[in-house]
Amino acid sequence: MLCLRPTRTTSRRARHICFSTWTLQKLPLTIDKPVPHDAEIARAQVPKPIATLAAEVGIDAASELKLYGPHKAKISLSLMDRWKDKPNGKYVVVGGVTPTPLGEGKTTCTMGLVQALGAHLGTNSFACVRQPSQGPIFGLKGGAAGGGYAQAIPMDEFNMHLTGDIHAVTAATNLLAAAIDARVFHEGNLTDKTLFQRLVASRHHKDAASFTPAMHRRLRKCGIVADDPQTLTPDEQRCFARLDVDPSTISVKRVVDTNDRFLREITIGQGAAEKGKTRGTGFDITVASEVMAILALASDLHDLKARLARMVVAFSQAGVPLTVDDFGLTGALTALMKDALEPTLMQTLEGTPVFVHGGPFANIAHGNSSIVADRMALKLVGRNGVVVTESGFGADMGVEKFCNIKCRASGLRPDCVVVVATIRALKLHGGAPPVVAGKPAPPEYTTEQLELVTLGCANLAKQIQNAKAFGIPVVVAISPFPTDSDAELALVRDHALRAGALDAVVARYHAQGGQGTVALAEAVLRACDLPARHFQLLYKDSAPIEAKATAVATQMYGATDVAFSQSAQTQLDKLTAVGFGGLPICIAKTQYSLSHDPRAKNVPPPFTLPIENIRLNAGAGFVTLFAGDISTMPGLPTRPSFMDIDVDDDGQITGLS
Amino acid sequence: MLCLRPTRTTSRRARHICFSTWTLQKLPLTIDKPVPHDAEIARAQVPKPIATLAAEVGIDAASELKLYGPHKAKISLSLMDRWKDKPNGKYVVVGGVTPTPLGEGKTTCTMGLVQALGAHLGTNSFACVRQPSQGPIFGLKGGAAGGGYAQAIPMDEFNMHLTGDIHAVTAATNLLAAAIDARVFHEGNLTDKTLFQRLVASRHHKDAASFTPAMHRRLRKCGIVADDPQTLTPDEQRCFARLDVDPSTISVKRVVDTNDRFLREITIGQGAAEKGKTRGTGFDITVASEVMAILALASDLHDLKARLARMVVAFSQAGVPLTVDDFGLTGALTALMKDALEPTLMQTLEGTPVFVHGGPFANIAHGNSSIVADRMALKLVGRNGVVVTESGFGADMGVEKFCNIKCRASGLRPDCVVVVATIRALKLHGGAPPVVAGKPAPPEYTTEQLELVTLGCANLAKQIQNAKAFGIPVVVAISPFPTDSDAELALVRDHALRAGALDAVVARYHAQGGQGTVALAEAVLRACDLPARHFQLLYKDSAPIEAKATAVATQMYGATDVAFSQSAQTQLDKLTAVGFGGLPICIAKTQYSLSHDPRAKNVPPPFTLPIENIRLNAGAGFVTLFAGDISTMPGLPTRPSFMDIDVDDDGQITGLS
Fold it and tell me: Which sequence ranges are marked TM in the entry (chains A, B) (predicted)?
């Protein structure tokens, strides 16, 4: 039971594997045909107490486990101190071909893969996935815990508030936004002297005026050395107290975790008490906020605080970058976010462990789950274990950002990329009519179409090459629908191997869970056992932003070059001038094409990638380049999925899938 | 240890008391002088595991306890099924005199009282308090877990996200608001037929078009009997599908749990994709939402769902009230709120139990913690135990709404009202200069001023009479500051007894915790042991709204009469016409005066209460009458308390008090 994993290792190594392999209480699956709705499958399975799972994988109940009800737990970052000298396991990232609007099922593949590894091959394995936004859950997409027999459970808790991390991001971002506008308002109403006096007054009126630690940092920024507020000259008081925000440069938008199109563009401050200080702005969905990107990229509490502190939220009238720390908000935002930095432990349908943590948008941000969760999982699985983490959208976006942003920040190196492909997506790329959520698929998708599949395999080949560009071996997971023919599936495998994939395996995780994913898992293990290759990022920190953009656009998207609009170039020059040119880039573009044009399927003909706009994310640590108009606030459709959701008399949520 | 409580009961009853008295592991307090900052006191105390406390008070660990980390737990409502035949304990509500802007410390009194009862008198006792909004915590007020040696701990968890209930209210309210605007948008773009077809289409495209349960209820509202969408006539399709919202009647505002003055009045829908459908609206702070009031008033999950369903969120162009259920949101909002309906268990500094649950605004809503928590606590303490619950603002508002709204809904009857008074407040009412948060108190407040105190006791007398108007015995808690003189304190006691208080006791909970509150606790026990008196509400359900307003205004505030503005009268007539005249009322007025004028201190001369505006809260089950302009969105001051908040290297939050 403990040593089932087939290996070609020495017996000494094998003993080590046996020694460190978890004894997991597996949850047996009863497989029905046809596959029932996701919610039915999830509800039919009784999860084990999360405390049991935590103990099984080596988490200390007394010091590292914080239960959130019986089936979720936050894991303390102190675990990393205890395990810091332990070797990491293998690191697998799941990407995909360019997706259809229905998605390729990467979360489902991730769950199926760890179910196969953990419940069928006796290999320690952890899935690391993002927490889903409530916006799409109540909008068009529904639940996001995987699908079929490859899911995280309980799926209702996965899809609702989880342990509150996204709510914490909402609270932190909105406090920040409110504080900026309030500061502009108060600075506009007060003399330098009054402003200064109010800022340094103690809230405990018995105490004398004093500087907080953040105020001391602000003093240093102004070049002032002082401990006593009474000693500052009027000029020093002014420099310290007056941030002098240029309202047109405020880059923080307020957020809600709701699809609310009417908040995309709004005017605020129209109350009489706000004295005419109106301003045009908008709300983003919470997961599009920089605070969310920071949560996913921070390595520990200290780093979280440092990243929050250095977020540039506006510029002064003189063009000086103004940070969270200048507004005195570093501590408060850290207080709001500190619990959110602990990953949430859940389980798959077969009782193997899952971390759900972080959920940054996959175009304007880097679309990968958290570094903290991956690192912790890599320690927990141990040297011969496997961590499977998921990246958003196609490999040109998710895997690229996984490597160039997430691995650059973490220093971790992936051992294998899994590229998920469906016949449906390849047919779309081959020229079949569009597929639309909520509408029946055109007949091309339910009949054998070898020519369409062959044509569409060009997209798969390109995405395989994209992953290989980083020096990582690629395994293709072919996820079949019941109507896909054997000939279609064989064709995809053939094309994948010719494009340089180490292997390509039909993986029936949706229909059969881990049992249907054993062959894929074995292929992944073989890839991980290859001698380490030279992992390479696409560009160096020191390269100019323009060169970074060209590297990604030409090597990943197949563009010939990049064109910055005049406005984007001006913004870029400004950012570079104030010292942010050394950051990696995050290109925001449509997920539906390798290019910036969602209509250009498959491998588009040579094109120039236009960069229209730029956003500095100094705290997250990247510069977002907008290739076209990217919505950061979805809308609700006429018939939203919330209409299916109900709570029955037993208090169970129904209709989530 | 078990039978310390002094009683004059028979020995048989005494045995029963002994039998059902909890064995609490108390947390000894080390009292320092002068009283350290709240955060220092809270941090010096090590809380016991909340699972230990839960077991001590009779909560079943396996089925009723949901841990949220080691020091907080949600308690399942299934406890009420198990304990439904057990008798209730005594029910004590804490109110106060008309407060100063610094507050009278009602939460502190509540904590001190249960600490005295539970840790010093051996009486089972539970505190029930509201969850504080993050807005004031980061704005002006700071932490809200009590103060000095009478606090709920851990105070940082109390003041941050707790178990996410307020975030759930935010999510539910914002989904509702987004859904209303989106529905107006889509109805405006689609023909009746397309609108109908889209609404009844299944999200699983394999399935046929069908009606959801909420759609069946909508059909009934239209007088249509049908199971198959294909059978509806065009007129029936139109009635079913077209809500025909009059945008000017939309009463749901979006919410954030942040002090954000720039969101008070805004214009939404200004993006090009929204096709000119702009609308003036605003954000409220989350705790001002009707969903929060519903959370606090719902008796169980079934009632929560029913209340959410019947919330009137707008009127149609034809003047028909449109509910949450018409928008198909009943189930989704219930799914978002179901965990929030479970109260959160915490503990006092001395290890006695506290429920933190619900947090409705105390003027536009009823300002009392939840019915669910009070009911559960009344069962847990048992027949001879005491539940102390807190009501917002002065007794004219908090106690009045406690009785007329909360007890009307719950059917519970209070056994005693505690009216908290400070010399500071009485001096203010007696004519001393204003006290301002963050500024040193004028000298009147730190020197003996018998005349000012005597004059201000008129306010105390009126608030005692207000509580007695409901037929409940009153005990006055005099909360001393170090500078208050013995003569001042004696004066207050004298006035209180003359005004009809059963007792008036100097209670040193802030300086000494439970030990300093024993005399108050004994007085409260004596009040609770009095033969039950006739508890009476101020008005019947069947009285017209105008008569209800007159009853409250004349009997509680000392007004001579009530004047409805023309606009308010029109709104009232409309509400009455569509059947909402039988609801109780909730008068929204300033907390700083018995009248509607915050400058009118003490007992204002006879006045007419003006009602300017009316808001229907059909789900919460009351009609709010606005006596003047009541802000539902606070602002951040120039020097907000967030500037003091930090997280230290151990991950501890500092600066919360």
Answer: none
Which chain B residue shows the shortest CA-CA distance from A636?
Answer: B182
Q: Which ipTM score applies to this complex?
A: 0.95
Bridge partners, A151 (sequence order):
A146
Predicted confidence (pLDDT) at residue A148 exceeds the cutoff of 60: yes
Residues of B in contact with A639 (CB under 8 A): 198-199, 201, 203
Give CA–CA dist B196/A245, Å, rounded: 50
A167 shares contact with chain B (CB less than 8 Å): yes
Question: Is there a contact between A262 and B274 if contact means CB atoms under 8 Å apart?
Answer: yes
Quote the number of domains for chain B. 3
Asked whether residue A157 falls in the same domain as residue A266, the answer is no
SS3 state of residue B331: helix
C-beta atoms of B256 and A258 within 8 A? no
Q: Residue A177: list chain B partners with CB under 8 A.
A: 260
Mean pLDDT of A430-447: 90
- The mean predicted confidence, pLDDT, of chain A is 94
Q: With an 8 Å Cβ cutoff, are B174 and A260 in contact? A: yes
Between CA A557 and CA A599 the distance in angstroms is: 14
Cβ of B50 under 8 Å from any chain A Cβ? no
Cβ pair B298, A611 in contact under 8 A? no
Q: Are B507 and B477 contacting, i.e. CB atoms less than 8 angstroms apart?
A: yes
- Strands (DSSP E) contained in A269-320 are 279-281, 283-285, 312-315
Q: How far apart are CA A489 and CA A493, in angstroms?
A: 6
Clarify whether residues B471 and B512 are in a common domain.
yes
Contact A653 B203 (CB under 8 A): no
Mean pLDDT of A200-214: 80
B481 contacts chain A (CB < 8 A): no
Examine the pLDDT at A7 and tell me if it is beyond 50: no
Window from A3-12, B96-105, B124-133, B381-390 with minimum mean pLDDT:
A3-12
CB-nearest partner of A645 from B182, B264, B332: B332
Tell me the CATH number at B107.
Answer: 3.40.50.300
Bridge partners (DSSP) listed for residue B44: none
How much is the mean pLDDT over chain B?
A: 94
Contact state of A271 with B260 under an 8 Å Cβ cutoff: no
Structural domain containing residue B492: 38-164+340-529
- Interface test mutation site (partner B, options A65, A194, A258, max chain B beta carbons within 10 A): A258
Scanning every residue of chain B, which has its alpha carbon at the shortest distance from the alpha carbon of A64?
A: B69
Write out chain B residues lying below 8 Å of A438, CB-based.
201, 203, 205
Which pLDDT tens digit goes with each residue over B378-410? Answer: 999 999 999 999 998 999 999 999 999 999 999
Three-state SS sequence of B19-86: HHCCCCCCCCCCCCCCCCCHHHHHHHCCCCCHHHHHHHCCCCCCCCEEEECCCCEEECCHHHHHCCCC
Does residue A445 sit in the same domain as residue A355? yes
Q: Determine, yes or no, domain membership for A3.
A: no
- Average the pLDDT over each of A549-563, A588-602, B314-328, B431-445 and give the range with the smallest value: B431-445
Q: What is the DSSP letter of B254?
A: E
B488 and B344 assigned to the same domain: yes
Same domain flag for A495 and A523: yes
Same domain for B481 and B413, yes or no, is: yes
The answer to the question of residue A537 being in a domain is: no
| DSSP designation for B133 | P
Same-domain pairing of A152 and A210: no
Task: Inspect the interface and report whether the beta carbons of B156 and A335 lie closer than 8 Å.
Answer: yes
Q: What is the rounded distance in angstroms from the CA atom of residue A131 to the CA atom of residue A152?
A: 11
Asked whether A408 and A465 are in contact (CB, 8 A), the reply is no
The answer to whether residues A146 and A172 belong to one domain is no
Spell out which residues of chain A touch residue B649, defining contact as CB-CB under 8 Å.
302
pLDDT band at B461 (very low <50, low <70, confident <90, very high): very high
B332 touches chain A (CB under 8 A): yes
